[in-house]
Amino acid sequence: MSGNKPLKGIKIIDFTHVQAGPACTQLLAWFGADVIKVERPGSGDVTRSQLRDMPDADALYFTMLNSNKRGLTLDTKTAEGKEVLERLIKVSDVMVENFGPGALDRMGFTWEHIQKLNPGMVLASVKGFSDGHHYEDLKVYENVAQCAGGAASTTGYWKGENAGPTISAAALGDTNTGMHLAIGILTAIIGRQQTGKGQKVAVSMQDAVLNLCRVKMRDQQRLERLGYLEEYPQYPHEMDAFKDRVTPRGANAGGGGQPGWILKCKGWETDPNAYIYFTVQGHAWEPICDALGKPEWKTDPAYTTPKARQPHIMEIFATIEDFIKDKTKYEAVDIFRKFDIPCAPVLSMKELLVDESLRKSGSIVEVPHPVRGSYFTIGSPIKFSDLKPEVTASPLLGQHTDEVLAELGYSKDQIASMHSKKAV
């Protein structure tokens, strides 16, 4: 890692598993925190063996969420394991957990006990729903959170055989919650500098999804006042079948108030991603007419305002699609970018994985791994002028156990004894 490591000296106990918590702690590890991932001896994080592509190596599911961490195995059900955790709490700044409700208490580590051991401790938790919510006992996964947070109701198609709410492939419930929690942890650390005291920080997956659906909550309130939403193609003519006026599933309609759509390009019959996204921005209407060779649209009253265009917006998109049918998605974007029209090719994971710009910026990195050889992962999405995070391999199960125990003051004999008792 080049440059200053801003989080150097911050020690984090990472009691998280699967995705939301590990995404949070990985981000903090990239920026210099000493993250100690605590796992059950013998098995570890369930993602080590989920969706494997190599029989005896940690799955990519695990490696891509746990880089730059140290690995400690610990059985907190044993007296020795409990004592190790108490020592660790005394010297750490943050504990991050995503257990089910009450699990830490049952382990003997209530918030009161943690505060006694270390009054400066920040205890950060991923929840399904906020404390006190009427669904707080529900078990929550990614897609459950997307539905509970409002994303699914506004995603997908409104009519046709595939009508219905749709889940996004983006981890709106998991990684997004982890990112929110990282902001909360850093805020609590800065707060501690002012007060000397730690605090509990929690982000519920429902809330994190809802935060990303802010513009859809905006649309619901606009809708209740206006009765229709002009940037959605199904308003007002297709809404009469439904008694309640609700923010509709947008399909490919934009969320920013400008109509947009996914348009086919050359080769779409054999390439599932031969498409571009095209946005009809109000102030870009004349450049759009120029790009398409349709000067007559500039003065035709049926086209000059967004409201005038709305009833036949799909015909406008069809005209644009006709214009690009003999062009690849890259050629189409190259034409439209000259006119400053917001658009982009639909890029597949295959294309992004080998994208030169992303490799150069460190957004996609290749990481050497002792068992896998190497793996590709997504690097820091946050870029700094004086910090270039260096992504290192995820830890093997228990890889740093002895090292961490020695740092906590245990002797070689004590460590050997803990191993024989399977406490670590």
Please tell me about this protein's structure.
- This protein has 424 residues and is α/β, with parallel strands linked by helices.
- Helices cover 35% and strands 15% of the residues.
- The chain has helices spanning 20-30, 60-63, 79-91, 103-106, 111-117, 142-148, 175-195, 205-212, 214-226, 285-292, 306-309, 313-324, 329-337, 349-353, 356-361, 401-407, 412-420; strands at 2-3, 11-15, 34-39, 70-73, 94-97, 122-127, 156-157, 164-165, 200-204, 260-264, 275-279, 343-345, 364-369, 373-378, 387-388.
- The strands form 5 sheets. A 6-stranded parallel β-sheet has the order 4-3-2-5-6-9, with helices on both faces. Strands 10-11-12 form a 3-stranded antiparallel β-sheet, with helices on one face. A two-stranded antiparallel ribbon has the order 1-15.
- A hairpin with a 3-residue loop joins β13 and β14.
- α1 (20-30) crosses α7 (175-195).
- It starts with a strand and ends with a helix.
- The mean pLDDT is 93.
